[in-house]
Design brief:
Number of strands: 6
Shape: globular
Strand content: 15-25%
Radius of gyration: 14 Å
Largest sheet: 6 strands, mixed
């Protein structure tokens, strides 16, 4: 079974859009979470050309003030069907980059499918490439989310 995993560097993805996120990091993270939850739960499946392109799991890594208001752990709204993605929120206890790398190491270790880390951070890209994960930029994810909202 293909169990691809996407790992989202929330700080980097949120920071890619100049929408005032810096005034309320928790609210900005919640907006991203809602977009991902909708995509993973299949609510927006009618606008997705091929649901098979979506991963089995999306890991949203939050750090600092962005953690407020979003509970860590699996999002129960994304467990609605056999072909829908599953969203899991991770609260980084320290460095968000370290938590992203840890999630990538774990996902690669499971060896059930490709691991894609979404970030524009060059240093972080290098670290996750070194453990066997691929990368995509925030613009790619925002385009997908915008197309499915």
């Amino acid at each position: 079974m293909d169990e691809r995993t996407w790992i989202v560097d929330a700080a980097n993805v949120v920071g890619a859009r100049p929408d005032g996120w810096w005034r309320d990091r928790a609210a900005a993270a919640l907006r991203l979470h809602k977009h991902l939850s909708k995509l993973c739960s299949g609510v927006s499946a009618s606008r997705t050309a091929d649901r098979g392109d979506l991963p089995a799991q999306v890991v949203l890594v939050l750090e600092g003030a962005a953690r407020a208001g979003i509970v860590a752990g699996p999002d129960p709204d994304t467990h609605t069907g056999p072909r829908t993605g599953r969203l899991v929120v991770v609260h980084a206890p320290g460095s968000g980059d370290d938590a992203v790398v840890e999630a990538a190491v774990e996902a690669v270790r499971r060896q059930r499918g490709a691991v894609l880390v979404i970030t524009a951070d060059r240093e972080l890209r290098g670290r996750v490439h070194a453990v066997g994960a691929a990368t995509a930029g925030p613009g790619w994810l925002w385009a997908l989310l915008d197309n499915n909202s």
